[in-house]
Amino acid sequence: MKQFFSVADVANLPDIVDEALRLKNNPFVYGQLGTHKTLGLVFLNPSLRTRLSTQKAAANLGMNVMVMNMDKDGWALETRDGIAMNGTTVEHIREAAAVMGQYCDVLGIRSFPKLQDREADYSEDLFQKFIAYSGVPVVSLESATRHPLQSLTDLITIRENWHQSRKPKVVMAWAPHVKALPQAVPNSFAEWMCRAQGEGMAEFTIAHPPGYTLSEQFTHGATITHVLDDALADADFVYVKNWSSYEDYGKIHPVSGQWMLNHSRLALTNQAKIMHCLPVRRDVELASEVLDSPHSIVIQQAGNRVWAAQAVLKRMLEQLSVDK
Amino acid sequence: MKQFFSVADVANLPDIVDEALRLKNNPFVYGQLGTHKTLGLVFLNPSLRTRLSTQKAAANLGMNVMVMNMDKDGWALETRDGIAMNGTTVEHIREAAAVMGQYCDVLGIRSFPKLQDREADYSEDLFQKFIAYSGVPVVSLESATRHPLQSLTDLITIRENWHQSRKPKVVMAWAPHVKALPQAVPNSFAEWMCRAQGEGMAEFTIAHPPGYTLSEQFTHGATITHVLDDALADADFVYVKNWSSYEDYGKIHPVSGQWMLNHSRLALTNQAKIMHCLPVRRDVELASEVLDSPHSIVIQQAGNRVWAAQAVLKRMLEQLSVDK
Amino acid sequence: MKQFFSVADVANLPDIVDEALRLKNNPFVYGQLGTHKTLGLVFLNPSLRTRLSTQKAAANLGMNVMVMNMDKDGWALETRDGIAMNGTTVEHIREAAAVMGQYCDVLGIRSFPKLQDREADYSEDLFQKFIAYSGVPVVSLESATRHPLQSLTDLITIRENWHQSRKPKVVMAWAPHVKALPQAVPNSFAEWMCRAQGEGMAEFTIAHPPGYTLSEQFTHGATITHVLDDALADADFVYVKNWSSYEDYGKIHPVSGQWMLNHSRLALTNQAKIMHCLPVRRDVELASEVLDSPHSIVIQQAGNRVWAAQAVLKRMLEQLSVDK
């Protein structure tokens, strides 16, 4: 594996999920694989789960880890080509990425979208340039449009919590929020679940209010409804998530009806397990009564971030030793 | 040891002091104890000594360390229950603590008081919730009302510098400052010294101006005076420290008389050793002529932070292997 | 080696360059030298290359590394003596340095000049006090007037790229910028190149506009011209760098003529290799057409920062074991 940016970078979906679960049972069995290999984690935005779980995964593999809070400890980055850098940006991503590639065997980068120019955000310009110029394998720690370590984690968590022979019904349910959030997590979850559905691993439904349709490239094959209660009927897993509008890009539209999941709504489901990528706004996105109930698997889900990262890093390290 | 928050978490005071001094003489003898164990250090406030000494202690024990500057690199934390999170806080401590507990075998957290609401600060709400929700052993890196790693260090340092059969006279002397500081360090030093006095290890006196009485729960058994020179008479150790008012909570009262320790004041003592937790405001809290004299043991004291942290982490690691 | 602050701290210049290149070929051969040794990296200013390359170098030697962003995660430092600390600075460098020396076997520190008071900056007061009070070997990560890890890197890179028996002609060419930058990098490069020239390793020329003369202590022996094209004639290496005025301290003077290196200027040289310490302002300091051409060795140069740091740290570790 030379990059981990979208589900397309995974050749065999069940394989990587199985491998992550084997690593969870036996975290240190590849503890020598990363000897003398350095992982650089570059953050242009805040991070708790991604920061710590990826560090932990790398330590389990015996890697050296260096964290770079580029937004605070480094220099303001320029990504545009063909302009004279006479403004406030101090270093071009061409140099910054190439230099970090000199010091690191694998790089991870987090960069949120600005939510102002859809075309710019969806071009994934920064991320693609980072890959192009760094010259080493790159893991997305969440980019403008995707969060693949989260999505792999989500599949692992569903697998861990499903013990029946029929396919689970998985619902991604839009939830209210006070801020405009990126589409990266829902895009990515949809992309991975549509792939899983195509491989017979699940049935996937998305429920959101009018005005919150995601880009079709991520949701192709999903059942989509504007009626939350219809979606919740017989759901085995409910993935709660807010996102801002893709159509009226980055905006928050007023919605009619109640979209926060609570106990009475939960009763519509098939005793569903409740998932969320966190951080979650209690009693805005999701009722505390649900979060604090045994239905919630959000902490287990967050814990699984380690094994998703470890499975990805393991494959990159194996590729490095093949390429040598 | 499953938590280290106050002196009550230490079963045998002389034992842990002795152990810390043995570790100082032989820092790497338990270098395998922390193999495959991760320490997470969570800072909601600045830190120099605590940050570096605790990292160093963990490294001496072979632990993996992850540092999280929550105030800058993570998300704004909510601690209140029963409110809808529709304001500026992004993540509830219930989730944040539980998630970090997924990634770390032991956690440390630093959180200063706001000095605005005494009841809120002294409830130690954040720290207690962090313990409750993280599910792993937690070390205080200074909480609203206590700084136990500092106090253990202080006892170690007094032990190291006392070679007579009689009990040393230890004086905690209030000192001037330009800002309102928490009571955490003086509360904690008093709590530990009162315990030490009760076990026949020292005689403990506190000197402060009127209006600066500490909460009696920390000072029970100490001799308390408003006359600094009386306290200094025959003192073997003088612990210099400013704090803001506990009574008129978080306020600075004008004080009469001179409260800064200088050479002429030092002459009243029994050639006392001078201690301070640092950082110290030179020539405001403590005269440079004292700080730069052989009487000052503040650097040795700061160095001992490593061994206090290492003794505590060692006990937590041993407990983890027992619980397994 | 007990300090690394200027070229004067290097006894034998070709030796350390050779050693760095041997380390590049065999990075892990001294992987046990740093066992149980801790490097503390203290940043008072932003850093990308220095931060990551020095961490990497220390890891290659098996050292434990602790990074301290003093400007953000610690306390505001006072450096003046003889004043009462009743202002905004919280800790004096006397204590801060001494305390960090308690926790670390080797320290590195970065501190930029303020560019307001030449005498203050050129006294290197902060750096010298840090050395004096820390009590351990100190590596400059760039001080007010010098950047020796960069300059050693530059010599390594020239050596790597020169395979002829005659001495290479090395030109340091002033370049335009939008901000007032320190003289640390050009001072340091000049200091190291003048030493190299004195030892028959190169011929060294500096080209800058009137008003940008560097302090003679750094440039003694160099050929200095105000005519860029004259300097470029037959150049084998061109080191592009902006600096603010030393004479009219910290100021930017309007310059006449074109000072940015581009393809047509490059044609004047002997197919010169182009160097820059980075970050570089594209199409302000240096034309993109040059940066993106095979003439540019700026990424290789940045990569070599690891080997310069590793050679210096190796010597300090060896000294520590001698002193023991």
Fold and architecture overview:
The structure is a homotrimer of 324-residue chains. In chain A, helix 1 (13-25) packs across helix 7 (148-160). With 324 residues, chain A is α/β, with parallel strands linked by helices. In chain A, the strands form 3 sheets. A 5-stranded parallel sheet of chain A has the order 1-7-6-2-3, sandwiched between helices. In chain A, strands 10-9-8-11-12 form a 5-stranded parallel sheet. A two-stranded parallel ribbon of chain A has the order 4-5. The mean pLDDT of chain A is 97. Chain A folds into 2 domains: 3-146 and 305-323, 3-Layer(aba) Sandwich (Rossmann fold), CATH 3.40.50.1370; 162-296, Aspartate/ornithine carbamoyltransferase (Rossmann fold, 3-Layer(aba) Sandwich). Helix content of chain A is 39%, strand content 15%. The first copy, chain A, has helices at 13-25, 49-60, 70-73, 93-103, 118-122, 125-134, 148-160, 184-198, 216-219, 228-232, 263-266, 288-291, 298-303, 305-323; strands spanning 3-4, 38-43, 64-69, 77-78, 91-92, 106-110, 138-140, 169-174, 203-207, 223-225, 237-241, 273-275. The first copy, chain A, starts with a strand and ends with a helix. Chains in contact: A-B, A-C, B-C. Chain B binds chain C through residues 27-28, 43, 46-49, 51-53, 55-56, 59-60, 69, 72, 178, 278-284, 288, 291-292, 298-299, 302-303, 306, and chain C through 36, 38, 40, 64, 66, 68, 70, 72-75, 78, 81-87, 90-92, 94-96, 98-100, 102-104. Chains A, B, C: Catalyzes the transfer of the carbamoyl group from carbamoyl phosphate to the delta-amino group of N(2)-succinyl-L-ornithine to produce N(2)-succinyl-L-citrulline. Is essential for arginine biosynthesis. Chains A, B, C: One of its GO terms (molecular function) is amino acid binding. Chains A, B, C: It is an enzyme of class 2 (transferase). Chains A, B, C: It catalyses: N(2)-succinyl-L-ornithine + carbamoyl phosphate = N(2)-succinyl-L-citrulline + phosphate + H(+).
